[in-house]
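Board notes (copied after class):
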Amino acid sequence: MSNRQRITIRIDRHDHEKVKVVWEDARGLPFLPYHVYAEWIQQKVQVALAALDELNNAYRQTRPDFEPAIEKLAVAGDELRKALFDDTLDHQLAHQPEAWFNRLAGSTTDEFDITVHADPSLPIPWGLLHNGSLSPRSDIWPAAGFIDIELRCSS
């Protein structure tokens, strides 16, 4: 039987260049906040959305070949995830929530509700975040690594 876990993410403008990111676990206990450059996130979002458009275009073909488009979307989703954890100004502070998040993503029994409180000036397509694994793991490879599938979540 699966357990439902709650993940809360808060993203607030810190100033005109940076955003503050705070992850909260199921008990409502936040990790220490860390900061990322808003422009980095926006660039990664644009690349992910462009890759999603390519998948849409592949779908509309008479004989669609989804695999290259899904793989490109997975790479863009991984870059977007990395922008939230690796491309931070506070690497040490981002490490703990990243390790926790990756541990959750590796769970085979839990399902998740993700609640995002984000500044509307920085829209992030959360379902496009990808775990970076492009090795065949399931019959829906490489789509299996997207956050909505990997974490069996609702947001």
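Comment from the instructor: Helices lie at 38-59, 66-85, 91-105, 147-150. The chain has one domain: 3-154.
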